[in-house]
DNA sequence: CCAAAATGTGAGCAATAGCTCATGTTCGAC
DNA sequence: GTCGAACATGAGCTATTGCTCACATTTTGG
């Protein structure tokens, strides 16, 4: 089965277990090289080497190096979306401040887990042509948060959802990248900013 | 005069007006290619071409492509520092909320002016070895803000300064990059978040 | 003026990248 | 078993990149 012709989508969908493992190994190898040696070190030969497969196999499933990055970014976005969905589901019926506190911690948790990878991938994303799938996932994430805000009568929930995500990520990401390890302290500093934004101090 | 041996510092300091113009043309060409065609399009030959000089001249003043990026980043950091210094100077003796409002607008103004360039440079910076000069300038920026916060009895002013800058940049940057053009509206949404962080709503 | 320093030139080298393809191997349906 | 499809291999082609160097031109101090 061949996939769409978009330059960022996978080339062929693996059908046997063996090829699924190959694809997984390629993605994991690319991510590890990216984390440990930087974007420039992620060459197709290096990825194939590290994955223990040949370049030919790599190009059976990814039409280009960029497609590998795009897939990793899609995985990251999907996980972030799912994390936030879970947090928002857990929080229905609770107070707005409780909901926001939970959101803050979900985002922090997401960034702590694989901080280096997320960081590098986000910088890469800016240099890649925009990927519709990634945009969709981010849109879904915002929409879910907006729904929660609507239920609490927050005005302009769509805009507020975007602002709040930017606020939380904007504060959490550099702090964690800068070596901050007291996640509770960080969360307790972000909380009042979010509530301040919402005018609910 | 030859400069330090650091891989990111310029190689030779221009002494005549003509070479100053050359250096300026190289930096401007690199920035324009970066903005319009992305990081991968910034090759030394392309930069030299666009600058109207030869590759040889380029390598007289920059030991590597990375050194060009590093210099552009330094310029950006210096301008941000100066913008914020001016804002903080203007605001001594005024109320904390007035000071923060001014800060918010200074950051927004800084990002509006050359949003594309700043964006691309920041993503590049993450992939370069850390540059001491840039770190120093960011440290100076934070310190100046911390001083202002100290005068308003804000506890932990150093940490708060970092948090507030991250908050403002984190909210402003994606919004502006996403095409937001109503800067006043944006500023008025960031203001309460900052005050919320400070516990001064 | 003139020599020395500063500046500028661009053909081309060495290295390396992304990627293809001819060929071989394994799997699964029948 | 058998045969076609799926999967895997890796030597090596093509293109490009960062960068050097031998040489030309301009500027400046005296």
From TrEMBL, chains A, B:
Residues 43-62 bind DNA. Keywords: DNA-binding, Transcription, Transcription regulation. It holds the Pfam family TetR_N. GO terms for molecular function: DNA-binding transcription factor activity; transcription cis-regulatory region binding. Residues 20-80 form the HTH tetR-type domain. Gene3D superfamilies: Tetracycline Repressor, domain 2. InterPro entries: Homeodomain-like_sf, HTH-type_TetR-like_transc_reg, HTH_TetR. It comes from the Bacteria. PANTHER family: HTH-TYPE TRANSCRIPTIONAL REGULATOR BETI, HTH-TYPE TRANSCRIPTIONAL REGULATOR RUTR. This is Transcriptional regulator, TetR family protein. It comes from Celeribacter baekdonensis B30. The lineage of its organism: Bacteria, Pseudomonadati, Pseudomonadota, Alphaproteobacteria, Rhodobacterales.
């Amino acid at each position: 089965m061949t996939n769409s012709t978009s330059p960022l989508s996978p080339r062929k969908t693996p059908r046997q277990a063996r090829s699924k493992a190959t694809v997984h190994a390629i993605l994991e190898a690319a991510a590890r090289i990216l984390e440990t040696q930087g974007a420039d070190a992620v060459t197709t030969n290096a990825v194939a080497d590290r994955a223990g497969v040949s370049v030919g196999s790599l190009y059976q499933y990814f039409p280009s190096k960029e497609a590998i990055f795009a897939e990793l970014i899609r995985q990251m976005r999907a996980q972030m979306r799912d994390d936030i969905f879970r947090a928002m589901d857990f929080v229905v019926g609770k107070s707005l401040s409780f909901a926001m506190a939970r959101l803050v911690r979900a985002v922090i948790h997401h960034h702590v887990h694989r901080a280096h990878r997320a960081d590098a991938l986000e910088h890469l994303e800016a240099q890649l042509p925009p990927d519709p799938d990634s945009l969709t996932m981010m849109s879904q994430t915002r929409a879910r948060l907006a729904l929660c805000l609507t239920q609490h009568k927050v005005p302009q929930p769509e805009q507020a959802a975007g602002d709040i995500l930017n606020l939380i990520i904007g504060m959490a990401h550099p702090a964690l990248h800068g070596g901050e390890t007291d996640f509770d302290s960080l969360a307790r500093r972000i909380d009042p900013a979010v509530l301040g934004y919402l005018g609910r101090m």
